[in-house]
Amino acid sequence: MQARLSLVDSSIKSMHQTLFYEAIHRDRHSRYFYLWTLVSTRKFPYWLPRPKVHSLKIYLFPLKMEIIEEESMSPDQLAVNQRFLEACRALDIEQIQKLVRDEGADAWFQEPETGKGPLHLVVEGAHVAEAEEKDAAVEKADECLSWLMGNGAVWNQMDREYRTPACRAREYGLAKLYANCIDAGVRAELLLAHLNRKQQTSAGARNEAYLNSKLTWTEPTDGAKTLLDDENNGVMMSWEKDIMKRSAEVLVPTPGEGSVLNIGFGLGIVDTYLQERRPKRHVIVEAHPDVIAEMKAQGWDKKPGVEIVEGRWQDVAGQLAEQEVFDSVYYDAFGEYYEDLREFFDEAVGLLSPDGILSFFHGLGADNQTFYDVYTKLVMLELYDFGLDTEWEELYIDMPDEEWEGTKRRYWALETASSVSHSIFKFVHQLSKDSALTKLLLAKPTPSEA
């Protein structure tokens, strides 16, 4: 299981009270979510060596929460932190600022019993406000959230029920507060991706284990098929067929026309639907030897207009781009991470015709609505940076529990499990100077804001 080291955005503002690190496991097909936070209470510039850690907390989501180690806190510090949490619940921005700036309250502090942190309590304070005061309370809470997230509060901190502040805001129907938390998550991920890009593990090392694994085809129910790796992780399942069918309609809008490239065959669901629409050229890139053997056993190498390219897309994309561009490209590669997907976006620009369409199955962070929404917005902004305009289409699908029998874990476990977002990208020739990415970064709260 792999994790990516990330640096929370609020810590980068040079000399600040608190530094947070987080390691988050990123994989569409693994249902564990790790979050660990190292917290230092000494002031220092972020580029200096890390000082002694004040406390280490490790959360294992969604199975359980464990505090692995926590040094004792002085009674005076504990009292300040308790007053700080009370001010957050009361939406008292002036008291919040005073306690953090002047009295050294820890912006990461959580109630021991409930695990609620300052952001949770701000959201809760808006939720419990009387009806006639609700609008004003939401505005005050929004101001508190922005200031706190710019001064060390952890945007994705979890309480003892494994809910982030954004999760609570969504449960309470507080759309403005939910959006504020999601934007904070996107800002953090954009910054962290930029900082970590030069230190990433190569894609070959990341998916080597999958490519060397033995795959199994099963039929958990009548008419349903599942492709499993050697750890019983679902590589592809029949419940995805409605997504794949709609994807094929988007990718080949006019039957009998166009060229299409698909990255990752799996069960061949999307390729089957693509063949029904009879594109003039249909190229399939597949790297796993077991899948390639199954494709040939089914006669895919003999279908008119179908070309099978054996190998990893990272190794063949350049050669394909030199031969011919495609009218549409689809991506659903197993055993890869968001970093690989983003790398593919860069390659896709060279593979697409000027009016081409890029689509992929969006299962990023699909075990938690908050993280899913962060990735949804992150993908849109990253693609805009590549010159791609984004449209999202939501599909309602049937996902029988029986189909998950025999799998190690569900790779789709949102609260609204019947809803899947389908993404469509169309190439645009020019970018606005006032891009959405620029707006988002400019909107970032800073520690100096009152």
TrEMBL record:
GO terms for cellular component: cytoplasm; nucleus. This is RMT2 domain-containing protein. Gene3D superfamilies: Ankyrin repeat-containing domain, Vaccinia Virus protein VP39. Residues 201-450 form the RMT2 domain. The keyword Phosphoprotein does not apply. GO terms for molecular function: protein arginine N5-methyltransferase activity. One of its GO terms (biological process) is methylation. SUPFAM superfamilies: S-adenosyl-L-methionine-dependent methyltransferases. InterPro entries: Ankyrin_rpt-contain_sf, Methyltransf_11, RMT2/GAMT_Mtase, RMT2_dom, SAM-dependent_MTases_sf. Keywords: Methyltransferase, S-adenosyl-L-methionine, Transferase. CDD domains: AdoMet_MTases (cd02440).
